[in-house]
Design goal:
The chain is mainly beta and 84 residues long. It is 13% helix and 37% strand. The radius of gyration is 14 Å and the shape is globular.
């Protein structure tokens, strides 16, 4: 796993790159559905990414996922810089 940050055009971008083997085709946006749990670990409620997306959107930002099939996923949190 790797973590990167950058400032671009008035926004802060935080990227988390996870070597997860990628996602099934067309499934990237399904990760953000509430109560949708993937994999064998069923201990959580499946709310983490849905709540995170709402919180980031409330601050004027967005969460994105880029799937690199067979290799990895890159999750990006993009939020505006605080006004001075």
């Amino acid at each position: 796993m790797s973590l990167r940050t950058a400032i671009e055009s008035g926004y802060v971008r935080i990227e988390v790159e996870e070597e997860c083997g990628g996602l099934p085709a067309g499934k990237a946006q399904e990760l953000f559905r509430p109560y949708d749990r993937r994999g064998s670990d069923r201990s959580g409620l499946g709310l983490g990414l849905a709540i995170s997306r709402q919180d980031v959107a409330a601050s004027g930002g967005r969460i994105e996922v880029q799937d690199l099939p067979g290799r990895e996923c890159i999750f990006s949190i993009v939020v505006p810089l605080a006004a001075a």
